[in-house]
């Protein structure tokens, strides 16, 4: 018995548990990363949107202030007032008349904003009118510019900018938290996934453990479907079916070996007995010749048996060497009739052939299969009856029937007729030329032609063997 734990594993083979765990963890990490990226992108977008609202609102506030009779000269005298109104110490706020230097210029970082057109008087500020750029240190800056007409008719351009310093720090902190969460999730999911998958594959290990308990002496053992998941139940049932077929084949092989030993032992024992009797005392020349003739018959019987066994052994590999030709069935039936005519006359039987047609088969094997059936029909048919050979073409091929009259064959024996060395009536074949392999050879020949052989026996004693040859167009190959 092979121990599961000591079974040799293929080199560099990764276990199914580890492989599934890595794939599961990889997929989970991709999902978590995608969620983290989405959250980071959403937060970045929201912070920018808030900054844009802040900048546009600031410009709109001063635009409204100047447009409602707030003197520009007062603004010029209190620049520090606006610094306190800004969001942080680096924010920008400038007031300037068209074509003149700024009246108020709050720009601690001395950032040079790119030239862009101010929002005209009377046109509202929106998020689309807010622009952005990067400061030299990489800090994002959001800024807007709008024009407003004051009391004396001049136009003042208001520019406001916001350094997203705090927002950048917040995003950086959030980014590292997301990276840490993704890495931690990957490790956690991998560990939990390994445990879950290992537990989930427990039925598969149990199945493998049960399979190691099966050996030639316990082929009746079957894998249990109790507590097996639904996905494995079909596999277990298929495996049990395979074991059933293997057990049946093993039983047939064991029976075949026993039958073969018995069949060979009988003629060998007869040969030894003949020789021992002959050597017991001096014999005449005629007695020795008789002994040799009897021994020759036994040796010929052994030779035929060996040839039949070899044919059956090679039948499974002989398909590639088949010589398929067109056979005139009527001519072949006539030839078989003529060949067995003498044997049939000895038993006061007649042979009758009917039907015609053409089938595609190996001529020699076809003759052998049909001859075996006719030989059986003559050997086991009732004396004075007729053996009919009938050809019936049909859409899917052709059936060849061999019909004889004799004792009915019980239904429980019909299925065993094609077993090797099986004899429905052993007493009738004891010591005869039958080896019990004729019908097995017929079955093997029909399998080579992708056909079949069947047998029926009526209560009135009519036995019908049928060779079914498929048409060339209905064969798999």
Characterization of the model:
It contains twelve helices and twelve strands. The chain has 477 residues and is α+β, with helices and mostly antiparallel strands. Strand 9 and strand 10 form a beta hairpin. Helix 1 packs antiparallel against helix 4 and helix 9 runs antiparallel to helix 12. The protein is rod-shaped, with a radius of gyration of 50 Å. It starts with 15 loop residues before the first helix and ends in a 7-residue tail after the last strand. 19% of the residues are buried.
Q: From the helix content, strand content and strand pairing, which structural class follows?
A: alpha+beta
Oligomer: single chain
Q: Describe the biggest sheet?
A: 5 strands, antiparallel
Give the neighbour order of strands across the main sheet.
2-1-5-4-3
Order of helices and strands: HHHEEEEEHHHHEHEEHEEHHHEE
């Amino acid at each position: 018995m092979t121990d599961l734990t000591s079974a040799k594993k293929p080199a560099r083979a990764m276990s199914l548990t580890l492989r599934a765990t890595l794939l599961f963890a990889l997929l989970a990490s991709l999902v978590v990363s995608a969620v983290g990226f989405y959250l980071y992108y959403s937060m970045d977008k929201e912070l920018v949107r808030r900054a844009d609202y802040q900048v546009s609102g600031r410009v709109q506030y001063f635009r409204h202030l100047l447009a409602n009779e707030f003197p520009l000269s007062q603004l010029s005298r209190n620049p520090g007032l606006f610094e306190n109104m800004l969001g942080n110490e680096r924010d920008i706020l400038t007031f300037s008349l068209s074509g003149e230097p700024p009246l108020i210029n709050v720009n601690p970082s001395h950032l040079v904003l790119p030239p862009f057109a101010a929002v005209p008087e009377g046109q509202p500020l929106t998020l689309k009118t807010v622009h952005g750029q990067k400061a030299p240190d990489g800090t994002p800056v959001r800024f807007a510019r709008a024009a407003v007409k004051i009391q004396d008719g001049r136009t003042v351009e208001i520019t406001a900018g916001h350094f997203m310093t705090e927002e950048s720090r917040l995003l950086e902190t959030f980014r590292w938290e997301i990276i840490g969460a993704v890495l931690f999730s990957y490790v956690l999911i991998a560990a939990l996934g390994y445990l879950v998958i290992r537990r989930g594959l427990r039925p598969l290990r149990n199945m493998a453990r049960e399979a190691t308990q099966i050996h030639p002496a316990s082929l009746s053992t079957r894998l249990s479907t109790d507590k097996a998941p639904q996905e494995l139940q079909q596999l277990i049932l298929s495996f049990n079916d395979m074991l059933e077929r293997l057990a049946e084949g093993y039983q047939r092989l064991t029976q075949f070996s026993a039958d073969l030993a018995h069949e060979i032992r009988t003629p060998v024992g007869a040969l030894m007995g003949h020789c021992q009797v002959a050597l017991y005392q001096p014999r005449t020349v005629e007695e020795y010749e008789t002994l040799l003739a009897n021994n020759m018959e036994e040796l010929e019987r052994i030779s035929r048996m060996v040839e039949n066994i070899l044919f059956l052994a090679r039948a499974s590999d002989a398909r590639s060497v088949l010589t398929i030709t067109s056979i005139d069935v009527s001519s072949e039936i006539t030839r078989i009739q003529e060949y067995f005519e003498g044997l049939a006359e000895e038993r006061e039987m007649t042979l009758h052939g009917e039907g015609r047609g053409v089938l595609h088969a190996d001529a020699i094997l076809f003759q052998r299969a049909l001859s075996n059936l006719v030989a059986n029909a003559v050997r086991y048919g009732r004396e004075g009856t007729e053996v009919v050979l009938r050809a019936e073409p049909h859409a899917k091929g052709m059936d060849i029937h061999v019909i004889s009259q004799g004792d009915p064959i019980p239904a429980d024996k019909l299925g065993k007729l094609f077993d090797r060395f099986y004899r429905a009536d052993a007493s009738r074949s004891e010591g005869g030329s039958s080896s019990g392999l004729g019908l097995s050879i017929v079955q093997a020949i029909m399998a080579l032609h992708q056909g079949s052989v069947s047998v029926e026996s009526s209560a009135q004693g009519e036995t019908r063997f049928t060779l079914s040859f498929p048409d060339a167009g209905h064969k798999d190959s």
